[in-house]
Amino acid sequence: MQDSVARHSLIEDVQGLFVGTLLVALSVQLLKSADLVTGQIAGLSLVASYASGIGFGPIFFALNLPFYVLALRRLGWRFTLKTFAAVALLSLFTEVVPHFLSFETVHPLAGSILAGVTAGAGLLALFRHGASLGGVGIVALWVQDTRGISAGWVQLGFDAAVFALALGVIAPLTVFHSLVGAAVLNIIIATNHRRDRYIAR
Predict the structure, then answer these.
(1) Which residue of 9, 11, 120, 168 is most buried, as measured by CB atoms within 10 A?
(2) Is 172 exposed, middle or buried (0-12, 13-18, 19+ CB in 10 A)?
(3) Domain-located, residue 34
């Protein structure tokens, strides 16, 4: 059954990466408007951006660079190239979108939930076109395979460190709101990204 599933065409992959990264860029804009953070490399990039004043895009792009070697070795050149393209697009969009779209009032809890929903939808689009936003997910799979530690625990540990760092630059209540958004995102991925329901190559 799996062998009969055709790969996405180049045009389909391009629109999938474009739509996915644009949705995640919208999520980042919502988070920044409410001074929120999230997990993974995106969350670390937001914390670093708040602390340094440097834009999210350049930090996110730079932090992902070391992971491409591991991605190439573990998941192949097709996944690595698509992931590099997705990271580059998101880095670009997060610098461009604020010039065309801003939010005057964003309640932290509402912003967190909406950011989780938009990021979840965007990541699903990327996953279904054989890409990701790099970073911790690749390392988590490698640690699971080589050390026997669950990928989920690795990602949870990294996210816990990101939110702990966030306490140094944003208020505890804001960190709590951020955690709600991260939970929404993870629930969306957990309930919708299943290989037994959708296979794309």
Answers:
(1) 120
(2) exposed
(3) yes
φ, ψ of residue 24 to 5 degrees: the values are -65, -35
pLDDT band at 195 (very low <50, low <70, confident <90, very high): low
Q: Whole-prediction pTM value?
A: 0.85
Helix, strand, coil distribution of the chain in percent, nearest 5: 75, 0, 25
Question: Phi, psi at residue 131, to the nearest 5°?
Answer: -135, 170
Torsion of CA 142, 148, 152, 158, to 10 degrees: -70
pLDDT tens readout for residues 42-92: 889 999 999 999 999 999 999 999 888 888 887 789 989 999 999 999 999
Please give the residue range of the domain that contains residue 51. Answer: 2-192
Residue 198 maps to a domain: no
61 Cβ neighbours under 8 A, 6+ residues apart: 87, 88, 91
38/131 Cα distance (integer angstroms): 20
Q: What span, in angstroms and rounded, lies between the C-alpha atoms of 162 and 158?
A: 6
Q: In a 3-state reduction of DSSP, which class is residue 53?
A: coil
How many domains does one find in the chain? 1
**Structure confidence by residue, pLDDT tens digits, 126-148:** 888 888 888 887 787 677 667 87
Q: Is residue 86 in some structural domain?
A: yes
